[in-house]
Each structure stands twice: as structure tokens, then as C-alpha cells.
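Troubleshooting log. The previous structure file for this entry was overwritten by mistake, so regenerating from the original sequence record. Sequence copied from the archived sheet and checked twice against the printout by T.R.
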Amino acid sequence: MMKELDLLKKDWKKDTNSFEQLSESAIYKMIHKHSSSLVKWILIISILEFIVLNGIGFFINDENIDKFLALHPYLNIINYLNYIVVIGFIIVFYKKYRAISALDSSKNLIEQIINTRKVVNYYILWNVLIGGFFGVFGAIDGFNNAYSKDHAVNRTTEYLVIIFIVPLIMVLIWGFYKLLYGSLLSKLNKNYKELMKIDL
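Regenerated output below.
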């Protein structure tokens, strides 16, 4: 970094316009490298998340979960669909990382940053929706079990509680993914703003 700064200072003494061009070029290179690193981390985190979350589910052998899936076999289909969609997102993250790493202009980098942020937000939205979907069935199944054991329980009360529980589940999932990816998206947004200054 010090060598680059010395070169910029020498160039400043020679020609102010030349310094400005060199400075913008140096800034672009730093932003490009940083953006590539951020997208690489998005890719790495998404892969680790997929392995860890599904690994936990694989090793936990819960009879209640097995019974629940037996009662709702179509949920297995939704679950497999979720695997396909998530893997699809991971592939897209990989392609975005490769694309950003190979870019050579600020305009293209701006477009890729915008697209990458959109894809990550779609990924978060998908996980929130799928989590809410499974949360609905889990909550209904849980309350049905409670109702079958205690007929004094009011079904209206049960479903009113579900209305509050499911949004809470979705908010918690959203918070989890914002915690995982929020900082990376914020840094990508900062890079986008810096590039806009250069590109104008």
C-alpha cells in the first residue's frame, strides 16, 4: 500500500490530471478486489450454511419429525424442492463470484454488484417464506396434538396463537440471514456507491 501511495505522489508532482486518472484506477482495483472477496464469502457462507443446517437435520433422529412427515408426505417433496432451489442459489453465487473476478470496468462491476445484492435478497426471502411455510404446518400439527390430548383447549385460540407464532418464526429466520449476510451486503453497497462516484 505504501509503494502505491508513493507512486501516486510522484505522479501528482508530474501531472495533476494524470494523478486523478491513476488514482481512480487504483481505487477501482481496490474496490474490485474487495467486491470479489465479499462475493466469495457469500458463496462460502451459503455452502457452510447448507452443510451445517442439513447436517444437523440428518444426524438428529426424531420420531416426532418422522411421524409429522408421514402425516404430510407432500412436505418431503417441498423439502427436496427447497434443496434444489438452495443449491441453485449457491451455483448462482459461484457464477457471480467468477464473473466479478474477471471484470475489467467499473460499469460492469456496478451491474454485477447490483445483481449480486438482488440475488442474495431473493435467497433470504426464499428462506423466510419456506421457513414460514413449514412453520405453519409444524404449529398446526403441534396444536392438533395438544387438542387431541386436551379437549378443553379452544381451537380458535390455537389458531390465533399460530397467526402470531408463524410471523415470529419468519422474523427470526429473517434476522438470522440478515446476521449472516447483512454485513457483506452493506459493504457491497458501499463499494457500489464508491464506484458510482468514479463512474460519474
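Residues 1-6 have pLDDT under 50 and may be disordered. Archived copy saved in two places this time.
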